[in-house]
Amino acid sequence: MRWANELKGILENYKFMLGQKVKLDKSTLFFSSNSSIRDRELISRALRAKYYPNTDFMQAKLGNYPLYTWRSIWETRKVLQDGMAWRVGSSENISIWQDVWVLRLENQRVQESASDYSVTKVADLIGLNLRQWKEEVITRLFSNKEAEAILDIPLAKDP
What we know:
The protein is mainly α. It folds into 2 domains: 2-82, no CATH class; 85-159. The protein contains 6 helices and 2 strands. The chain has helices at residues 2-18, 37-51, 68-75, 77-82, 135-141, 144-151, and strands spanning 126-127, 132-133. Strands 1-2 form a two-stranded antiparallel sheet. A hairpin with a 4-residue loop joins strand 1 and strand 2. Helix 5 (135-141) runs antiparallel to helix 6 (144-151). The longest helix has 17 residues, at 2-18. It comes from Gossypium arboreum.
């Protein structure tokens, strides 16, 4: 029941922020509290297999003639994306140019630079032995504001 109230709160925020109307009395939750984890996982795997078998949820396409359930879930991506950012750990999966990872910047992304195409992942900006930022690479690739914001990000001691 607690998660249902949390979801209701999210929907209320959605209504407020986007000016959309959500008729809660006509809405149903996808899973009831009586749904088993097995059932939830089964449905999740089925949606993944049909709508995004070769990518992750955030990169998924809506597709042709989607189920109402999938369309509803897919529409939440923008709300999720606005509140998501990478935490810099191993950094091997974080794209420098496409992912949200520099929280101090206005749009939390760095501006794409064509100066060095070999540097694509945040891991390319970190010295692996000492787990420190490669300052010379960062100051060469990014504006002063971006470089300062990146260098202020603390790195995990163990990736």
